[in-house]
Write a structure and sequence with these properties.
There is one protein chain. The chain has 164 residues and is mainly alpha-helical. It has nine helices and no strands. It starts with 9 loop residues before the first helix and ends with a helix.
Length: 164
């Protein structure tokens, strides 16, 4: 289609991108996305989430963050999934300041972070020895309706043991 200058719909591109990523053809997925952007097709929140997940699969959290920032700059309305993925990427880089800022931005937009998002950021706080922030986030998680879970409890327990 691209070689014939036919511009597919975003939904069609997302299906192809998703299949490429599933088959671990991540470079091909990024190349397709770049070609589409050059033709003026910027994608949507699903496109961004697919590409960010691909970056995490490649252990390239900084690229996931780059896709997130570019999408915001292009005016793509991002959802809880996109925010959760970029927060996970930031936690992998241990950039907790930015992860917490995006979590707050997410909450300010009335988007509810997933239980896994909270568990990841709490675990990253514990790794950095920031138990106060980890406990604050645990309280925030519970106030969102998520129950205390084994992953969070184990992370907090490890943090308490490290402090002793």
């Amino acid at each position: 289609m691209i070689e014939r200058n036919i511009i597919p719909r975003v939904r069609s591109v997302n299906i192809v991108l998703n299949e490429l990523v599933k088959r671990n053809l991540i470079d091909e997925a990024k190349e397709l996305y770049n070609k589409m952007v050059l033709r003026g097709v910027i994608g949507d929140r699903a496109t961004v989430s697919i590409l960010m997940c691909a970056c995490l699969r490649e252990e390239k959290p900084e690229q996931a963050e780059k896709y997130f920032r570019e999408a915001k700059a292009r005016g793509i309305e991002l959802d809880a999934t996109a925010y959760s993925i970029v927060i996970k990427a930031l936690c992998k880089k241990l950039d907790l300041k930015m992860a917490c800022e995006l979590l707050k931005e997410m909450r300010d937009m009335d988007l509810v972070p997933s239980e896994g998002t909270y568990a990841g950021i709490i675990g990253a706080c514990v790794k950095q020895g920031n138990m106060m922030e980890a406990l604050r986030l645990k309280d925030d998680m519970v106030s969102c309706g998520w129950p205390m879970n084994l992953v969070v409890l184990t992370s907090l327990d490890q943090g308490i043991l490290q402090e002793r």
